[in-house]
Amino acid sequence: MAEKVEIPVQKWSGRVREVTLGATKEEGGTRTRSVTVGGEATLPFLHFEGELPHPPRIAIEIQDKKPEEWSPLLLKAWEEVIDDPAAWAKKAEERGADLILLRLSLDDAQGEENTPEKAKSTVRRVLAATGLPLLIFGPGQVDKDNELLVAVAEEAAGERVVLGVCEEKNYRTIVAAALAHGHLVDSRTPMDVNLAKQLIILIHDMGLPLDRILMDPSTGALGYGIEYGYSVMERLRLAALHGDTMTQQPILVTPGEEAWRAKEAKVEEGIPEAWGDWEERAIMWETMTATALIEAGADVMVMRHPESVRLVKEAIDKLWVKEG
Amino acid sequence: MSRFIATRAIRGANRIVQEAEDLLEKALAEHGPDTKVTFPNTAYYLPVILGLTGREVATLGDLKPALAQAGSLLHPVPRDQLWTPYLGEALDGGVATLLAEEAIMGIKYALGEQPERLDGYPDLVTAGGEGYCNGPIDDVQLRAWGIQLVDGRMPGFAAIVGAAKSNEVAVKIVRELQMRNILVFLCGNVNGRSIIHQLLEEGVELGYDTYIIPFGTDTISAIYPLGFATRSALTFGGMKGGQAREILLYNKFRVFAFVLALGEVDDLKYATAAGAISYGFPVIADTVIPEILPTGITQYEHVISMPFDDIEGQDDLERAERLVQKCIEVRGVKVKIAEIPIPVPYGSAFEGERVRKDDMRIEFGGKKARALEYLLMRDPDELEDGKIELVGPDFDEVEEGGAMDVGIVVEVGGRKMQKDFEPVLERQIHYFLNAAFGVQHIGQRDIAWIRISKMAADKGFRLKHFGEILYARFKGEPWNSIVDKAQVTLITDPEEMKKWLEAAREAYNERNVRVAGLTDDAVEEFYSCTLCQSFAPTHVCVISPERLGLCGAYNWLDCKAANQINPTGPNQPISKGECLDPEVGRWSGPEEFVYQHSNQSVEHVTMYSIMTDPMTACGCFECMVLVIPEANGVMIVSREDPSMTPAGLTFSTMAGIFGGGLQTPGAMGVGKYYLTSPKFISADGGFKRVVWMSSFLKETMPEEFKAVAEREGVPDLIDRIADERSVTTVEELLPWLEEHDHPALKMPPML
Ligand code: SF4
Fold first, then answer.
1. Boundary-marking domain end, from B331, B358, B389
2. Other Cβ atoms closer than 10 A to B341
3. How big is the CA angle at B701 (ends B700 and B703), to the nearest 5 degrees?
4. Domain carrying residue B487
5. B396, B417: one domain
6. Any atom of ligand 1 within 6 Å of the Cβ of B534
7. pLDDT per residue as tens digits for the range B39-77
8. Does B508 lie in the same domain as B431?
């Protein structure tokens, strides 16, 4: 006869905020559905202990032009659609994305400077091609980010897109654009609990409601500082559950970008035979990075390879068992 | 509030509400209640009425209840005998005025009488059309500018009402504002002349592109800027129509706007100004009017009078410049300096650079000359922002490789500036000057030592450039949150130098006395520092006047200033709360704070004990204090000392064992100036417990330790403390201490 074992249950006083990405027609946008993340009242997957209303979600990252610097494996995986962000978004939806993250580039495919007009047209086309909620990140240069994001914020007014990325050095314009057009923002800080919290406070101080902010504490890939990122996420989540309100934001991380930067994923030549098949290894690298991060409390993961997305979704499904 | 202003504002309000009612009656009679009332290209109806009352006015008929509401806010004009405070009444009148003014404009739009046509000015092209004033700013432009106002690229807006003394002055005022990226809204007239006429006559281009918007030549068109402000709150503040209080507060705290009243102020202008004051926008007039100084409704003063001809200045242009300065100051608009105008590259990458003797053009201070730096706080009114002055000759006459005296005096002022911040700011001079390529800076106060390289001098670097650097940096982030105005004087004239040297030394003395008098008992708050949590997640430094942060970089005053500068940063005030144990230095405030901010892992903390709940250690402490039970005392190892200690551990081993945010009774990381504090492990017997100390400390702080020894009543105490030159093991330590009759041996047991 099986002994009944008493599982110790921790009582948490705090809970993560719910944040809704995207807006359907009824909600003032054009998405076929919106996606809500967060709401956790306990640590990841501990359904027996507290409420976990929403599973982690996956955003597939696409770019407004063929990302030449990406691994050839990724270019191959998206081969037919890589030159057309609208087709790419559609394909990503088919391959299981919950969300689409569109990254804007500095230059367009012809090597000419990206402009607010071009960015707007890209966004318009992507919105038309997919019904999923959108995240839009700038190219990562302060002036260009601001110029493009202000324009696309206007273009996507009402759609509750996530604008990113807000960093300590440059967040005011992006937040102002989000305020003006009803969007959300991604608040990114370099792997530090207090900095993460501080930027949330600063963004919130500008008047953006907390339920429109995702917390992006940064991470490293497997073998490249993931333990550091993991620990910061874990501490942020513990603080949130302990009732520290400024850490109670759903967490977004970018395992795709990080993992595909790692040597193990990137290169084919000059590595030991024992490392095995390149493609398999690269996909596993992204998959392992992402699955570790969902255990640390990630709510939105930005990923790149469709096969890793499939594997991670499978892992989430297996972990997302409420009974037994 | 001044009775005079209240009287006139209330009178103006009564009259304009009446005028609006008459106009509405007439329009209703002629056109019927269903006639549409809209401002062009906006989704916010009549925005002020929407914001302040929640009414969505779409027809003439809708205006009736809105005006009735305005009427209900009216009060009788105060009679001569009455001496109640009038502020409330006048402000109500102001709000009534705004509702009435907007109603009037709504009616005029319905009748096709707005925007205003200005005949005879073919150059006038605005969103309102060719030859027309602008009318309300449309929603698209509102968002575009709003984003810049919210993110800080645009500091704020100025609503100018009336006409300037001359066309020349009008242009100057507007250029001064433009230069600072401040939006300029124009309206009103004085005897029929408007600043809009003045600017057009001078060929100034008006419109969205130049950030200068002509709304109309009557006072009523001042409603458009206030509509803009209201819609900002609705768009960017997430407020809804009818949330009057929230909307007004939003504007008070977030929209940096002010009203500049040029020329005579009549009743309607007073009434409109009262409305603007409700938004927290101060009014600055260039004529004689009673001032309203107590700050409350606006962030700062409500009404300031600066009669134009009384403003100091050589000519009208300079007076205009000062007037704009004052406006900016009153509203607390922060303007940044984009680039530092010096002939050499500038950046923190050059901070560590050395200027060797052979490469040196000139030096100030050092062995052959004297360099003085002194920063002092002044009343902002006494300062001329941006003034950089050289008193005495520059260094051109000094031979290559020579030396000369220089005094650098920085005078700063600001609403948040405090005398206590003087030393904190003064210490920045070192970093600021060092960041210039070809400049080396060492030391502080009257023992500073500065070198300029030949290369920098060849490129034209001269003394005044020190001024340019200091001015730009103190007015840049983050220091501009406490420095509103700054001026720099560079002194090489021997007489002046002597004078300043005396003044500075007196100030240094005062500061020293002040710091000595700053005790833990004398203050209500300590400060936290959590900067080190990035690598030691449970570490919190509790910093009190008598115990600085353990890295030595932050004392209590630094934290206080840092908190003013960055209120959400790592230095937060910790209210002491209840004193739970004065002996070990345990207060309820720090205990709670540390518990909350250590991820709830450090439950107790004391300020003065190494044995009972000592502070955690992060890893960047200047010194390690460790109990040596055998000797009934403690040893102190400094970061600079690589040798073996009687504990059998080197500094770096100890940093590894005790750092990382751990709390270890018997071990403590400290800043070296805490060693000299009367509160240094006072609960455990104080400095007399020190049985071993790195010679580095003895040698670098001899005077300080001498004073400590005197205070402890054992004048030769330092000589009785062993160091690594005589003792490296605990076996050697005991006999050495006995030989030197160390007081710790006779003290009560530590454990
Ligand atoms: S050691 Fe210095 S920097 Fe670190 S927390 Fe303490 S005071 Fe702050």
1. B331
2. 12
3. 135
4. 348-516
5. yes
6. no
7. 998 889 999 999 999 999 999 999 999 999 999 988 877
8. yes
B171 lines ligand 1 (CB under 6 A): no
In a domain, B37, yes or no: yes
Q: Which domains does chain A have, with CATH numbers?
A: 21-319 (3.20.20.20)
CA of B550 to the centre of ligand 1 (A): 6
> Given pLDDT bands bounded at 50, 70 and 90, which one contains residue B296?
low
Partner residue opposite B147 with nearest CB, options A180, A194, A239: A180
Residue ranges in chain A modelled with pLDDT below 70: 1-2, 323-324
The answer as to whether B372 is a domain residue is: yes
The partner residue sitting opposite B143, judged by closest CB among A173, A180, A244, is A180
Mean pLDDT of chain B: 90
Considering the domain architecture, whether residues B629 and B575 belong to the same structural domain is answered as yes
Q: Are residues B100 and B207 in the same domain?
A: no
Q: Give the Å distance between the CA of B659 and the centre of ligand 1.
A: 12
Q: What single-letter amino acid sits at B614?
A: P
ipTM confidence score: 0.78
Rounded distance, CA B486 to CA B695, Å? 43
Neighbour count for residue B410 (Cβ, 10 Å)? 24
The mean pLDDT of B167-193, rounded to a whole number, is 92
- Examine the fold and report which residue of B454, B487, B516 is the final residue of a domain before the chain moves on: B516
| Alpha helices (H) along A214-305 | 226-241, 255-259, 263-266, 278-296
- Asked whether the beta carbons of residue B570 and residue A177 sit closer than 8 angstroms, the reply is no
Q: Can you give the pLDDT at residue B87?
A: 66
If you measure from the C-alpha of residue B571 to the centroid of ligand 1, how many angstroms do you get, rounded to a whole number?
10
The answer to whether residues B602 and B503 belong to one domain is no
Q: Which tens digits make up the pLDDT trace of B205-251? A: 899 988 999 999 999 999 999 999 999 999 888 889 999 999 998 98
B210 part of a folded domain: yes
Contact B151 A235 (CB under 8 A): no
Our CA angle for A139, A145, A150, nearest 5°, is 135
CATH number, domain with residue B313: 3.40.50.2030
Instruction: State the distance from the centre of ligand 1 to the C-alpha of B555, rounded, in angstroms.
Output: 10
- Per-residue model confidence as pLDDT tens digits over A173-183: 999 999 999 99
pLDDT value, residue B544: 96
Query: Which of A156, A81, A160 shows the shortest CA–CA distance to A122?
Result: A156
* Interval between CA B621 and ligand 1 midpoint (Å): 8
Residues B151 and B55 in one domain: no
Q: What is the CATH number of the domain that holds B55?
A: 1.10.8.190
> Chain A interface residues facing chain B, Cβ-Cβ under 8 Å?
146, 150, 154, 172-173, 175-177, 179-181, 191-195, 198, 201-202, 205-207, 209, 231, 235, 238-239, 242, 244
> Do B690 and B655 belong together in one domain?
yes
Cα-trace Rg, chain A: 19
Identify the contact set of chain B against chain A, taking CB-CB distances under 8 A.
Answer: 143, 146-148, 150-153, 235-238, 250, 254, 530-531, 533-534, 537, 568-570, 596, 599-600
Q: With an 8 Å Cβ cutoff, are B599 and A177 in contact?
A: no
Ligand 1: does its nearest atom lie under 6 Å from the Cβ of B470?
A: no
Q: pLDDT of B693-718, one tens digit each?
A: 999 999 999 999 999 999 999 999 99
| Contact (CB, 8 A) for B338 and B416 | no
pTM over 0.80: no
Query: How near does any CA of chain B get to the CA of A217, in Å?
Result: 12
Alpha carbon distance B22, B103 (integer Å): 11
Length, in residues, of chain A? 324
Q: Given this model, what pLDDT does residue A140 score?
A: 93
Quote the CA–CA distance of A303 and A253 in Å, as a whole number: 9
Within a domain: B337: no
Domain CATH code at residue B668: 3.40.1470.10
Please give the residue of chain B at the shortest CA–CA distance from A177.
Answer: B147
Domain count, chain B: 4
User: A188 with A165: CB under 8 angstroms?
Assistant: yes
B512, B527: one domain: no
Q: Determine what percent of chain A falls in helix, strand and coil, rounding each to the nearest 5.
A: 40, 15, 40
Residue of A nearest to B148 (CA): A173
Of A201, A202, A239, the CB nearest to B599: A239
Lowest mean pLDDT: which of B27-31, B449-453, B618-622?
B618-622
